[in-house]
Amino acid sequence: MSTQAFAEGASGVFTAWETKGQIYMGRIDPDSGNVSSVTAAPGDDRTRKHPALAVGADGKVLVAWTEGTAWNKGGTGAWQVFGVDGQVIGSAGHADGVPVWGLVAAYARTDGFTIVY
Question: pTM to 2 decimals?
């Protein structure tokens, strides 16, 4: 099981989802509803699930997800920031401590992003 996330901001409406252990993010076209500019989270871990999204006032998009979680097992939180153009900004982050049955959540602040788990 996994989840899907949606977020809206100045740079558009975005969605993120998991397929075969990888997290993908794309922009939703407001006219057609089609998803375009699909980007995979960087790295090769294939235990990724439960994405969360946040869009900053500057148009940057934060994608956060869990790694290594499973039935009755906690894991790691991970994240990546993308620019308005969909390009990766900086390197991906990781933090241990996602509890059993836990997920990550994200929100934009005026000075960046916050991830909660």
Answer: 0.94
pLDDT per position as a tens digit, 27-65 = 999 899 999 989 999 998 999 999 999 999 999 999 999
CA distance 43 to 65: 13
Local structure of residue 106 (DSSP, 8 states) = E
Residue environment code for 60-96, b if the CB has 16+ CB neighbours within 10 A, otherwise e: bbbbbbbbebeeeebbbbbbbbbebeeeeeeeeeeee
| Rounded CA separation 52/32 (Å) | 23
CA dihedral 74, 102, 24, 58 (to 10 degrees): -130
For residue 26, name the pLDDT band (cuts at 50, 70, 90): very high
Beta strand 48-55 pairing with 112-116: unpaired
The torsion angles phi and psi of 92, rounded to 5 degrees, stand at -65, 150
Report the DSSP beta bridge partners of residue 81: 62, 89
Q: DSSP string of 37-51?
A: EEEEPSS----EEEE
